[in-house]
Amino acid sequence: MSRIGKLPIPIPPKVEIKVTGQHIAVKGPKGTLERILPDTVDIIQQQDILIIQRQNESRRAREQHGLLRTLVANMVTGVSAGFAKPMQIAGVGYRIALQGRKLSVTAGFSHPVEIELPAGIDVEIEPKAAPIAGTRNQQGFNFVVKGIDKQAVGDVAANLRSIRPPEPYKGKGIRYTAEKILLKAGKSGKK
Questions:
Q1: Are strands 49-54 and 41-45 parallel, antiparallel or unpaired?
Q2: Which domains does the chain have, with CATH numbers?
Q3: For the chain, which terminus, N or C, has the lower number of CB atoms within 10 Å?
Q4: pLDDT-above-70 percentage for the chain
Q5: Contacts of 151 (CB under 8 A, 6+ apart)
Q6: CB 185 within 8 A of CB 168
Q7: What is the pLDDT of residues 94-109, one digit of tens each?
Q8: Residues 16/28, Cβ–Cβ less than 8 Å
């Protein structure tokens, strides 16, 4: 049996869960998420916990058991607390600005890169430039990608990072705050 799949999912106080067959709707203070689960699992709702059980012992059911339990647990966490991905942009002239639902990223190109934020995703930008740890004398901006859907938050963060991934010599670029960049020494001077 899946060690993750057999764990019960606790339901926080202000979260409502509606199960209709294989359709699950989770409503909380931050919003509503819905998902249709495959017919390899059953959803059992008791007072303040959810249990995901396999319908049979087929290979497909065993593969999906832990995954589907984690997806439902992420839905419950998302509508109650939300998800956040802290990020940084560092480099001379590198900036990030929010204009309505568009994010404008200036990252060393001849033009700013504009990204339309999907529904349910917000970006909070720290107002002042601050020194960024792990770079060589670089100042940058800290910002946070927030939302209730963990997958959407991760996708937007990955797309932002792919605009200008951090380079290994000065640490310039867009990166996750927790990401460690091993800086290379670079060229040594003439002897």
A1: antiparallel
A2: 9-80 (3.90.930.12), 83-176 (3.90.930.12)
A3: C
A4: 92
A5: none
A6: no
A7: 889 999 899 999 988 8
A8: yes
